[in-house]
Amino acid sequence: MLKDPAFKAEYDKLQPESAVIRAMIEARIKKNLTQTQLAKKLGTKQSVISRLESGKANPSLKILQKLAHALDSHLEIHFIPTR
């Protein structure tokens, strides 16, 4: 399906958001935390974590920094040149 230019264009648009969501979930699981436990560390509700992880909410840079801190992680953002 990625050979279809229209499909690939839409896929590429979603890739950054999907990568952030995947990274958040993987980091939480690696620390062996539930959504509820992570929410408590952030001082928020489990539903907020659920919305972030499902893509129903866009995290701000500030939220990503708080998540990194709560997960004892380092936040890095990269700009990679396109072809």
Task: Describe the protein's architecture and organization.
The longest helix has 26 residues, at 5-30. The protein is elongated. Helix content is 64%, strand content 0%. The chain has 83 residues and is mainly α. The chain has helices spanning 5-30, 35-42, 46-54, 61-70. It has a domain at 34-71. The model has no long low-confidence stretch (mean pLDDT 90). α2 (35-42) packs across α3.
Q: Helices, strands, pairings?
A:
Elements: H1 5-30, H2 35-42, H3 46-54, H4 61-70
Helix pairs in contact: 2-3
Short account of what is shown:
The chain has 83 residues and is an all-alpha fold. Helices cover 64% and strands 0% of the residues.
- The 3D shape can be described as elongated
For the sheet with most strands, the description reads:
none
Share of residues in strands: under 5%
In sequence order, what are the helices and strands, one letter per element?
Answer: HHHH
Mean pLDDT, to the nearest integer, reads: 90
Report the count of strand segments: 0
What's the number of helices?
A: 4
Give Rg in angstroms: 15 Å
How much helix is in the residues? Answer: 55-70%
Q: Return residue spans where pLDDT drops below 50 for at least 5 consecutive residues.
A: none
Structural class: mainly alpha
State the separation between the terminal residues, measured CA to CA: 20 Å
